[in-house]
């Protein structure tokens, strides 16, 4: 599939945008006119730079407010168009996007639209230029693809076809199915955009909140399937207006965009295969996504391993061994394995730096990640050491693929020869329940797409948690069976400043137990520091739930939090923060599947309060 | 008027919120339950702290999802309520907010609502507690104030009345007029919130975008007028859910809130006076707002005055004198006066630090500012020096009031004894046209309220300008006759980083001329650095406007930008940036009244491009 992207999706100068698109691997770009206008590069320089970078210049856009006007304005519009045709000739471009009139149209008459666009087409033909007519969702008179196609059909010129933009069609709730009936050669261009499900006016939604395919709520595989069935064999491009992308690193946004197209073409190929339909789009399939069976390990980076090691021991973890060659220690409890890594960690007090998941075929999972443009972690193993495929997530977490049930491979490097159950007493901890990872606000959508596509996780509905310094946006990603769960948090700027002197929001590792009360008592006996929960919380628990007084007292005594849903009960506690991380211990009773969301504000306020005092 | 504010409006811990409310000058607060829940303070401590601070605890809120439920759930709800009544008793509070059910109501039956709320009332009566029933705009069955009043009326208990929240009424487009017919003593509480005009679902709008009165689009003077006419004599409170306020400095937000109430009560008093209606609310009027006649001066702070002085000379400004006592220089051209201040400016390359406006009665303007809680600038004058009332705006700009036509007062301190026209040649510059001031994102709404209330300016509709690093939000504030105009800009984080090494977005002073071409030619002859405008811009001008080729050539030669509207033409240029500021020169032909908005992206991109190279 030939891929393209509109320059308006990206930040920076036109030159920076072009370099980033080429580096990411796009085949071409759409020139958003304003990007050219503000550029010191001449059209000839842009053309030459594109040629050197191997980028095609696919679409000049947008040309606005042309048709449906009085004769005098039509002449001014044709004058304006001809100037742009001359400019396009200098750029070496042959296709212009014509948006349906949203401003100056005063006459609602299809025949007039047809005759005026025909005049434009004949003028364009003299320059060898084709016109792709697009119905904007808020066009004054033309705002559906059926209508734009009807007009283009009646214009009846070889150099006039339509442009289809998924946003303009799906935002209105229109059915894309009829696209399949349009002759593919009369579809001149296809632009894709996804969008979160928001109830707001379509114009604001479009101008600020578009996202790359897979980051929103539209069914773009079905949309692209309909395009494919029309016989369209051209370019698939991205046109995203997004307030955050406009401010983000241009190279990363370009990679994020191409990743979204690689995923989408694979999904669409699968859809068409299932229906037994071929496509002229040459859709490329990815190696199949694998369901992870669970966490393989979680890695903490720290200059000084002692405080973390002590905390792990208090929680019931056993030391399993020191890496034979590196300053790396392995701890485990039940199926939960935690690595403390002190390599290249000068100045790092403690931070969650990576994790592994277990999949049936790590090599295939790695190959899929590569095709999804994941950035490989630089290899640090010797020839006879385990070689787990590893990648940097957008939040800089390192993500590795290990083989299901094959821990022996890398555990042997820690001198561990028996798998599991080396402890004297059975561990109260069963496994890693979930990881909570902080996300920079600029890369939240990118992270969600990365984890859902590369780790094959599903995104659950997002929530917002009030804290003393703003709302924390939270998004859970999980395998269908919850064997692997990640909670991504975006933290308001003010909270970062308040909660940590490095302006970083702490991440945490949640481990699961079947007996949180015994585990907490053991930890108390070992002198562990719990995050202190205020007394008012327990009074409110008593008002909300019909709890045994004895249980309530135990909860308060041990700083345990409590939640209940229609399935069961949830008990959990938090440790004090070390550097930039802390632990949570959870017990899930009778199929409770949430994360204690009502308690999250309590935790944030307690950490804020704690930090406030340590700041004084 | 007795004022209150809900703790949910503010950032920080409950203690910090209470301290900030007392310091700002509120009479009382509403306790938002979650703020208490997450606090380590016991109810007794909260009560004692409030007493010490002189704050009344006016409303305990919210109590949710009570009425319209099955008998078993009713019992649980009564249990929950009684726990809260006991808590309120410990807090010494006697009024609870009951929100109409949005979640658990399953039976749509007014009689059932009445009988269940009556049970709640009778339980509350035992604790001396009153219930204020509020219709949420998205209540399942009860969502209008008429409906909540009808139910409260039928409940027919002395301790049950209603709470009226302007957001829930005005967001639905409901007419508040009928409030005047409700007996004032049955209105137990009034909450005010404004909101920008947005088309989105009401719940999201309410939870994220509420603002203080005067910062949005609701007609709150009419709303409060209807409240007053009901005979209500109680507390007027603020309940604002705003994503930005939650992250902002708690003391500033509290002041911002009380300022909004002081302005609103004055506006409402004027409205009622005009209608010849008295009010039990004891509304306090402010000294009347005065229309400024123009800018008195603009002040630039800089460690080294030479680069700015040179630029001013190139633009045609004359040096008028040095302050007799301080390192401060005065320049003027026509009616434009610019002060270069080198006091306390170590490390400041150049920044717009303040400005004065001329009003008929500066002392009264200063008194109004004080009553609007503006922070006075520390006085720096001696007894025999001019004493202009001065205040710090939220963006830290110093704002002064001078007397109309009375420049001699302070000019004399610069050894200037003749007013104006000291230059050999008539100045091409006529006056200061407008100032463009950068705003921190946290204080944009606060700034708009400050400048509109303290300087008595009107806010025009806002716009957004694309830049290479994100959208710049822009808001013009002006007197009705445009004698004083300010353009406030919020700059995306990424742009700040890109455009300036101090992460500050440059501000600018725009001066007006009647002959920009001669002025620009003079500046070229004097060797001035212009901001360079790319050639592509002039090609686009030729496509969009039917310009004389000679004029187009002159524009391009002089780096002038051009715009036209239905009134007339606009020509302008920008200087290079010095430190954190630059100048713009504008010529308005035939009543053009805008700011060349289509050219703003060109300017931003050119500055970005310029900076990019200076960074390399």
Automatic annotation (TrEMBL), chains A, B:
<dbReference type="InterPro" id="IPR037523">
    <property type="entry name" value="VOC_core"/>
</dbReference>
<dbReference type="InterPro" id="IPR043700">
    <property type="entry name" value="DSD"/>
</dbReference>
<feature type="binding site">
    <location>
        <position position="508"/>
    </location>
    <ligand>
        <name>Mg(2+)</name>
    </ligand>
</feature>
<comment type="similarity">
    <text>Belongs to the bacterial two-domain DSD family.</text>
</comment>
<feature type="binding site">
    <location>
        <position position="191"/>
    </location>
    <ligand>
        <name>a divalent metal cation</name>
    </ligand>
</feature>
<feature type="binding site">
    <location>
        <position position="584"/>
    </location>
    <ligand>
        <name>Mg(2+)</name>
    </ligand>
</feature>
<protein>
    <recommendedName>
        <fullName>3-dehydroshikimate dehydratase</fullName>
        <ecNumber>4.2.1.118</ecNumber>
    </recommendedName>
</protein>
<dbReference type="Pfam" id="PF14696">
    <property type="entry name" value="Glyoxalase_5"/>
</dbReference>
<keyword id="KW-0479">Metal-binding</keyword>
<comment type="function">
    <text>Catalyzes the conversion of 3-dehydroshikimate to protocatechuate (3,4-dihydroxybenzoate), a common intermediate of quinate and shikimate degradation pathways.</text>
</comment>
<keyword id="KW-0560">Oxidoreductase</keyword>
<feature type="binding site">
    <location>
        <position position="165"/>
    </location>
    <ligand>
        <name>a divalent metal cation</name>
    </ligand>
</feature>
<dbReference type="GO" id="GO:0046872">
    <property type="term" value="F:metal ion binding"/>
</dbReference>
<comment type="pathway">
    <text>Aromatic compound metabolism; 3,4-dihydroxybenzoate biosynthesis.</text>
</comment>
<keyword id="KW-0670">Pyruvate</keyword>
<dbReference type="Pfam" id="PF01261">
    <property type="entry name" value="AP_endonuc_2"/>
</dbReference>
<feature type="binding site">
    <location>
        <position position="434"/>
    </location>
    <ligand>
        <name>Mg(2+)</name>
    </ligand>
</feature>
<feature type="domain" description="VOC">
    <location>
        <begin position="431"/>
        <end position="576"/>
    </location>
</feature>
<keyword id="KW-0223">Dioxygenase</keyword>
<feature type="binding site">
    <location>
        <position position="134"/>
    </location>
    <ligand>
        <name>a divalent metal cation</name>
    </ligand>
</feature>
<dbReference type="GO" id="GO:0046279">
    <property type="term" value="P:3,4-dihydroxybenzoate biosynthetic process"/>
</dbReference>
<dbReference type="InterPro" id="IPR004360">
    <property type="entry name" value="Glyas_Fos-R_dOase_dom"/>
</dbReference>
<dbReference type="InterPro" id="IPR029068">
    <property type="entry name" value="Glyas_Bleomycin-R_OHBP_Dase"/>
</dbReference>
<dbReference type="Pfam" id="PF00903">
    <property type="entry name" value="Glyoxalase"/>
</dbReference>
<dbReference type="GO" id="GO:0046565">
    <property type="term" value="F:3-dehydroshikimate dehydratase activity"/>
</dbReference>
<dbReference type="InterPro" id="IPR013022">
    <property type="entry name" value="Xyl_isomerase-like_TIM-brl"/>
</dbReference>
<keyword id="KW-0456">Lyase</keyword>
<dbReference type="InterPro" id="IPR036237">
    <property type="entry name" value="Xyl_isomerase-like_sf"/>
</dbReference>
<dbReference type="GO" id="GO:0051213">
    <property type="term" value="F:dioxygenase activity"/>
</dbReference>
<feature type="binding site">
    <location>
        <position position="239"/>
    </location>
    <ligand>
        <name>a divalent metal cation</name>
    </ligand>
</feature>
<dbReference type="InterPro" id="IPR050312">
    <property type="entry name" value="IolE/XylAMocC-like"/>
</dbReference>
<keyword id="KW-0119">Carbohydrate metabolism</keyword>
């Amino acid at each position: 599939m030939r891929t393209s992207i509109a320059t308006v999706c990206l930040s920076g100068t036109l030159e920076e945008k072009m370099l980033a698109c080429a580096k990411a691997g796009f085949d071409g770009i759409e020139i958003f006119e304003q990007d050219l206008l503000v550029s010191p590069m001449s059209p000839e320089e842009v053309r030459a730079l594109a040629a050197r970078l191997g980028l095609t210049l696919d679409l000049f856009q947008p040309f606005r407010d042309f048709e449906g006007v009085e004769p005098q304005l039509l002449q001014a519009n044709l004058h304006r168009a001809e100037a742009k045709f001359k400019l396009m000739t200098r750029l070496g471009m042959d296709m212009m996007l014509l948006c349906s009139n949203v401003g100056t149209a005063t006459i609602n008459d299809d025949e007039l639209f047809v005759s005026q666009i025909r005049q434009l087409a004949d003028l364009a033909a003299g320059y060898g230029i084709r016109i792709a007519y697009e119905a904007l969702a808020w066009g004054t008179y033309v705002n559906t693809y059926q209508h734009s196609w009807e007009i283009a059909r009646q214009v009846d010129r070889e150099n006039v076809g339509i442009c289809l933009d998924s946003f303009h069609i799906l935002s209105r709730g229109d059915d894309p199915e009829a696209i399949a009936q349009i002759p593919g050669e009369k579809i001149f261009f296809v632009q894709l955009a996804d969008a979160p499900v928001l109830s707001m006016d379509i114009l604001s939604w479009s101008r600020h909140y578009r996202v790359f395919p897979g980051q929103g709520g539209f069914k773009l595989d079905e949309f692209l399937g309909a395009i494919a069935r029309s016989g369209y064999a051209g370019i698939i491009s991205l046109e995203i207006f997004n307030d955050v992308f406009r401010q983000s690193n241009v190279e990363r946004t370009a990679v994020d965009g191409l990743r979204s197209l690689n995923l989408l073409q694979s999904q669409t190929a699968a859809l068409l295969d299932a229906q037994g339909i071929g496509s002229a789009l040459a859709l490329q399939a990815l190696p199949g996504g694998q369901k992870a069976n669970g966490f393989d390990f979680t890695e903490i980076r720290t200059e000084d391993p002692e405080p973390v090691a002590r905390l792990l021991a208090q929680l019931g973890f056993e030391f399993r061994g020191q890496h034979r060659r590196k300053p790396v220690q392995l701890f485990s409890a039940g199926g939960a394995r935690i690595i403390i890594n002190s390599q290249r960690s000068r100045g790092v007090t403690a931070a969650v730096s990576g994790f592994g998941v277990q999949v049936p075929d790590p090599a295939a999972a790695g190959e899929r990640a590569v095709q999804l443009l994941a950035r490989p972690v630089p290899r640090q193993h010797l020839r006879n050491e385990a070689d787990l495929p590893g990648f940097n997530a957008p939040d800089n977490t390192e993500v590795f693929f290990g083989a299901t049930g094959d821990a022996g491979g890398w555990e042997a490097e820690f001198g561990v020869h028996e798998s599991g159950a080396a402890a004297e007493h059975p561990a109260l901890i069963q496994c890693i329940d979930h990881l909570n990872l902080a996300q920079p606000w600029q890369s939240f959508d990118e992270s969600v797409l990365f984890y859902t596509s590369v780790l094959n996780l599903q995104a659950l509905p997002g929530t917002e948690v009030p804290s003393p310094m703003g709302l924390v946006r939270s998004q859970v990603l999980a395998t269908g069976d919850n064997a692997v769960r990640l909670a991504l948090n975006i933290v308001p700027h003010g909270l970062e400043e308040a909660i940590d002197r490095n302006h970083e929001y702490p991440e945490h590792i949640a481990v699961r137990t079947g007996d949180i009360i015994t585990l907490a008592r053991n930890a108390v006996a070992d002198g562990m520091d719990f995050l202190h929960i205020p007394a008012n919380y327990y009074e409110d628990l008593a008002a909300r739930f019909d709890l045994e007084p004895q249980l309530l007292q135990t909860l308060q005594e041990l700083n345990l939090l409590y939640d209940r849903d229609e399935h069961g009960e949830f008990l959990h506690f938090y440790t004090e923060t070390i550097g930039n991380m802390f632990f949570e211990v959870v017990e899930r009773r009778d199929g409770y599947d949430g994360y204690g969301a009502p308690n999250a504000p309590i935790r944030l306020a307690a950490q804020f309060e704690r930090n406030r005092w340590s700041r004084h």
